[in-house]
Amino acid sequence: MFESKKCVVYTALLLGFLTVTSCSPGKTITPQSPRQSTTITPSVQTLTVMTHDSFAISEEVKAAFEAENNAAIKFLKAGDAGIALNKAILAKDAPLADVFFGVDNTFLSRALEEDIFETYQSPLLVQIPDEFELDQDHRALPVDFGDVCLNYDKTFFEDKGIAPPQNLEDLLQPEYKSFLVVENPATSSPGLAFLLATIGHFGEGGYLDYWNGLVANDVLVVNDWEIAYYTEFSRWGGTRPIVVSYSSSPPFEVIFAEEPLDEPKTGVVVGEGSCFRQIEFAGILQGTKSRPLAEKWIDFMLSKRFQEDIPLQMFVFPVNPDAELDETFQKFLAAPEQPAEVSPEGIAENRETWIRQWTEAVIR
Predict the structure, then answer these.
(1) Topology annotation, domain 45-145+278-325
(2) Residue 125 to residue 299: CA distance in whole angstroms
(3) pLDDT tens per residue, range 61-98
(4) Do domains 45-145+278-325 and 147-276+334-362 have the same CATH topology?
(5) Across-strand partners of 336?
(6) What is the DSSP letter of 4?
(7) What is residue 228's DSSP assignment?
(8) Does the CA dihedral 58-60-62-65 come out positive or negative?
(9) pTM value?
């Protein structure tokens, strides 16, 4: 984002306006006092940022950027990550926004193939670890990351006297029938991340057999994370005690509890190969008419100020190692030691095939 240049218009006339009292000889003509110069405040610039529905930013952080850049930021929420990306691609000849945030490493190759982003090598990239920079042409810049894992309602399992699952295989057991809710990988980035976890863990030759087993055990599929977590998950009033979400859920429960909690009521399955690391990116959309302002916004998203705001707003973690985290994370964060791995090249080459195969096996 660029700083608006102040345009100062001097309207005072050096000689003022002459008041003619009479055109007759002998009458004097007296100049009035010059008018004071007037400074015209530059108009506020508007930047539209297209995001997924789970995007959030604190008002004070948003206000800080707007004040520093004489700008107004408009957030256009466009559905879950997959849906939002589809909308950005469909509108690439007449972009709906200046910046897009929320495409992750599961959908990144599609965004790059569709050429929706302009190249921008932010100077703040030097602060970001190389492991997060998956686009060497700097069209999509990393902003945050999170581990997609199975979450479970600890109270539910304690009340039922059932041990919570420890790995993906456990979900095929009859005692977990009708317990699991997942997001559709065709429309949801956590859903696709979980599908990739099963592919990384069971391999291309075994993941569909695993999903057939989940279908036999009455897995529930919904379109997005919001519905899965806040509607279907038993922790928040639903009927399903296991949900595909993030490993960061436990510390957030403690931080945001209405009444103080000694420990979180949600557990996380972090067994070998049961989680998948998701990285989210932002990019300047092709055709923006506010390129300088868009650059400033990207820089801001990578800055310590924005990065420290991310965890408590979007339940994910900053890619900038200089950002400081709440100490609650150190106490309650469940981090997988061996997440499932699928190469970016493998995702780019096979994503659509895997989604189609999954859809045929699970939905149809």
Answers:
(1) D-Maltodextrin-Binding Protein; domain 2 (3.40.190)
(2) 9
(3) 999 999 999 999 999 999 888 889 999 999 999 999 99
(4) yes
(5) none
(6) P
(7) I
(8) negative
(9) 0.72
